Amino acid sequence: MPAVRVDGIEVAYDRVGQGPPLVLAHGALTDARLFRPQLEELADEFTVIAWDEPGAGRSGDVPPGFALADYARCLAAVIEDADLGPAHVLGVSWGGTVVLELYRHHRGLVRTLLLVDTYAGWKGSLPAAEVRSRVEGAERMLAVPPEEFAPTLPGLFAGQPSPEAVRLLSVMSADTRARSMRAELTVMAEADQRELLPKIEVPTLLLWGELDARSPVEPVAHQFLAAIPQATLVVLPGIGHLTNVEAPEPFNRTVREFCRAHS
Questions:
Q1: How far apart are alpha carbons 135 and 25 in whole angstroms?
Q2: What is the pLDDT of residues 28-37, one digit of tens each?
Q3: 19 within 8 A of 12, measured Cβ to Cβ
Q4: In terms of DSSP bridges, do strands 204-209 and 231-236 run parallel, antiparallel, or are they unpaired?
Q5: Which end of the chain is less packed: N or C, by CB atoms within 10 Å?
Q6: pTM value surpassing 0.85
């Protein structure tokens, strides 16, 4: 297991395959295991890197006051440690917000952006009432006794997920740390990256599930499409928020074709 130390935090990541680099950033309450379908299928053509962000999986805990720029700095350190930049960089949900911040501060490491069912921060993409509702829901999860802490997010799938997907999400949920969830919540609720979007100068894939209830195609994906100069939107029909898990075949095919076109 490769790992890099950033300001005292050990950041772990998986690396498989050979070819142009493709870096994967997972969403909240998950870790690198979210990308098993991509690690297995895309390693024939790409060097695929999937990190455990600080506070998740095999990586060390987040310290107090950890900010969005700190997550981005740690992801930059992973790319540099693997000696792979500039890379195709993909972020799912909260991971897409981290990837956008990576571009803001470390754009020399980014060949293309692949933004999947994501946000320009909750404040930058969702109505204020929805942000308040999500914060309150997360606070209720965090308020339970430690032995009862088992966070889940509603609306991840449009259809019935496979038994394998359910098991995987259950395992990752059980491994979630309350401190990590609070850090993500604090950052995400206040993040507003709308001013960054028109400044993105690399080809950008927007990959969305048609029935995503957490980050709806309309208005969120269309706001990205209107703001980013070189953006292309691909919508997977009948799919919800976790497109890479719910529909791995069309997801992987779309990612492969986009990265090929810009390698």
A1: 22
A2: 999 999 999 9
A3: no
A4: parallel
A5: N
A6: yes
